[in-house]
Structure formats: structure tokens, C-alpha cells
């Protein structure tokens, strides 16, 4: 049996493909710029919200010293700004991805979900946390509060504060506005350059 081979040349198709590729590249640049702006704002919002919750939680825990302390997370107002980070990258040729994440998976999991009780945490870690976060340094008080906090965690676990989705939801209008600016710029640029059938 003889194989039939055929080739066809379409005039102008190469130029049209080049224009489409240029459009994809331009679209990616605009979307990347928009995404980079969005994740920087989201990073600050998430960190600020976690810090505010941590301040409230820390006050509640301090108030519970000596009678019914409940372990809450997050509870260190200084930590979210150091733990939350963001990144923007292009996956493949044109897929723009924006990420807001914690430097430590464990930190974000604890802040959002807490942990169950049953296991007594190491006292050395409790003492360090009480000194660093609560500011208690007197040896006798430090031992007592660290012990109380350890018992609270072993007894009732740590209550997390699932706020990440709320923080990002609060940015919905801002995100839409930023993307509109960049898609409008893209549309203007495409109109000037011309689409695949333009000049």
C-alpha cells in the first residue's frame, strides 16, 4: 500500500500565528502585573488580620491566668508579619499564578485550625513562649503560667481562628478593581497593536 502525503501552504498564516503569540505574551505581562499587585495587598491584609486576632487572643489568655485559661491561636501579634509571604509566577507559557502563604505550614495550620488536646507540650517551649509573648520573666510566675498553659493545651487543645477566607473575601472588590485596570490596559494595547486580523 502506498502512503499518500500532502502538504498545504496557507498564505499569511505564519504572520497570524506570530500576532497571536505576541497577544498572549502581552496578556501575560498585564495579568502578571495585576496578580503581583493583588498578592502584595493580600499578604498585608492576611498578616494584619492575623495580628489583630492574635492581640485579642493574647489579651484573653492573659486575663485567664490563674483561673480557666484557654489556649488560643494565633496569639503572638508580632509573628504574622514575619510568617506571611507572597509570590507571583508564570506556570507553563501563560498561566499566571499568585500565592499568599505562610513560611511555615505548621504555623498557618495552627492559626487556622488549632490543635486537639491530649498531649502535654514540652515545658521548655511553654516557658519560652510565655516569656517572649506574654512578657512574664519572674521565675515563679513563669513556671506557674507555663504549667497552666501546658495543662490548658493538653486538656482542651488550641482553638484556631479560621480567618484566611474572610480576609481574602474582604479584598474581592479590590481584586476586581485591580484586574479591571490591567485588562482595560490590555484591551487598549491590543486595539492599538491590532488583533490577529488587524494591521
Structural notes for this entry:
The protein is mainly α and 199 residues long. The protein folds into 2 domains: 15-112 and 163-193, no CATH class; 117-156, no CATH class. 61% of the residues lie in helices and 10% in strands. The protein has 7 helices and 4 strands, in the order ααββαβααβαα. The protein has helices at residues 13-63, 80-83, 105-113, 123-134, 139-156, 164-169, 172-193, and strands at residues 84-91, 95-102, 114-115, 158-159. The strands form 2 sheets. A two-stranded antiparallel sheet has the order 1-2. It has a two-stranded antiparallel ribbon with strand order 3-4. β1 (84-91) and β2 (95-102) form a beta hairpin. It is elongated.
How far is the N terminus from the C terminus? Answer: 47 Å
What is the share of helical residues?
55-70%
**Helix-strand sequence:** HHEEHEHHEHH
Shape: elongated
Low-confidence stretches: 1-10
Average the pLDDT over all residues and give the rounded result. Answer: 86
| SS content category | mainly alpha
Strand order of the largest sheet: 1-2
What is the subunit arrangement here? single chain
Number of domains as seen in the coordinates: 2
How does the major sheet shape up?
2 strands, antiparallel
Rg value: 27 Å
Compute the number of strand runs: 4
Helices, by number, come to: 7
What portion of the residues fall into strands of 2 or more residues? 5-15%
